[in-house]
Design a protein that fits this description.
single chain, about 270 residues, alpha/beta, 8-stranded mixed sheet, about 40% helix, about 25% strand, globular, binds S-adenosylmethionine
Amino acid sequence: MYIHGYGERESDRLLAQAASIFPLLHADTRFPPGRRVLEVGCGTGAQTVSLARNSPGAHFVAIDRSTTSLARASERVAAAGLSNVEFLHADLFALPFDTASFDHAFICFVLEHLSNPIDALRLVKQLLRPGGTVTVFEGDHGSGNFHPDSAIAHRAIACQVELQRRAGGNACIGRQLYPMLVQAGFQAPRVTPRVVYVDATRPDLVDSFTRKTFTWMVEAVREEALTAGIIDAATFDAGIRDLNRAAEPDGVFCYTFFKGVAVKGASL
Ligand SMILES: C[S@@+](CC[C@H](N)C(=O)[O-])C[C@H]1O[C@@H](n2cnc3c(N)ncnc32)[C@H](O)[C@@H]1O
């Protein structure tokens, strides 16, 4: 099961998320001309457009297991006038590529949904040539802090974390990027925290991050959380109300993403 689903609102949420993290993720993500880059789990192309635009000489192969998302991603890339991306419908655990056939790989918000993220990293490593790199970007819901603070809002967030755990994922995976890259056999892993800090001086981020990236994501698990019996409706709704409170003029929201870059060594 994929916790976020593939609905219209989730597609809008991924776009809002991509807009709010754009400088954190893409400011230092560039691939040289002539390089082949595998994007694993491109979804609706929210990152693909930025990747392809920022590295116009590189060739991107973007894969996802959702045909609906791939269709959306393909439209977006075409609408942006980019011609350096090819899309492929595939599961990342059964990719039809030769060993060492890519120079780089890029994985954003995918490992958090997998029960075996280290296996996924190992498979990606096989597809890289020696000296190639992997770039991984993930969030960590344990890092969400806000003002006014609210124990009930933290309970609503905990529902999302618990349901993602039950679906086999890990919503707090960001803090584990370093050990996972090491365990997968990558060399020279370098992980850096990327903080989103939002107050009223950034109305763009209040809307795109506090409301549409984070609060929408938690709100989306309402029915599932109620059905699972892990919270009651009144408490959950009060938690969402308090999360939205952080988007008001005196509110503050802070969240840490983690970006990891690591190298494939000489051995396959
Ligand atoms: C949260 S979305 C992230 C999409 C995009 N990377 C972004 O940053 O907006 C996660 C994506 O991973 C894809 N995914 C999850 N497991 C996968 C698998 N085993 N093989 C291929 N794609 C997978 C899902 O279909 C979904 O599109």
